[in-house]
């Protein structure tokens, strides 16, 4: 299994994991501007998950358990025994909790961005899509199919957010192996309940859980169960934010991530 990854900078290792069907560009563009402006040094490790981006797309690995095992081997090789930070977006947030359950207090802090809590989509408590603040004039410059896709994925759909969505999300979706994704979604639940493992840990490191009030992919209500697992967590539900919270509400997103990084240093 070949994992495509990108390491930037030196210092405290930070493993950043993107969501289902996307690639590392989603999480690079969200977090890299924050880390590059930090006075403290961080070694940012971005990875394309199996079946996505530039990583191998062998169907053998199309299960959450197998992807987690691959990531554990990757951490052992690239990070070793060093303490590190974890960041996970959507499916990456599910995988991050799997890694936390495995590495425990080797993980000094955790950020979950719109994380998957309930693997089975039909069992999630999701809000109905009803808000839209779209620049209809700008949307008319796209063909109808693409314009519909954009409106389904962005509440705030304007030139800036659409350009980011295309660069950070849609470009990754175009690279993903659809057969791999279909197989993965049939084997999407870990064989071990990692949240029960975390609950027993009393994981008291600074954490951040970011959710969108209008997130129609993973919701925000199920994520409250995660809040109870992390005694040192900041939990936010942002209005006017769907599953691309970091694109729709970048100012608040940046402030909250910076606050997490500050807590890691001042109040660890």
TrEMBL record:
Pfam short name (any one): Abhydrolase_1
Record-linked Gene3D superfamilies: alpha/beta hydrolase
InterPro entries named among the record's database cross-references: AB_hydrolase_1, AB_hydrolase_fold, AB_hydrolase_sf
Lineage: superkingdom: Bacteria
Domain AB hydrolase-1: 13-250
The keyword Hydrolase belongs to this UniProt entry's keyword annotation: yes
MF GO annotations: hydrolase activity
Ranges in a coiled coil: none
Name of protein: Alpha/beta hydrolase
PANTHER family found in the cross-reference section: HYDROLASE, PUTATIVE (AFU_ORTHOLOGUE AFUA_4G13070)-RELATED, MONOACYLGLYCEROL LIPASE
Record keyword Hydrolase present: yes
Keywords: Hydrolase
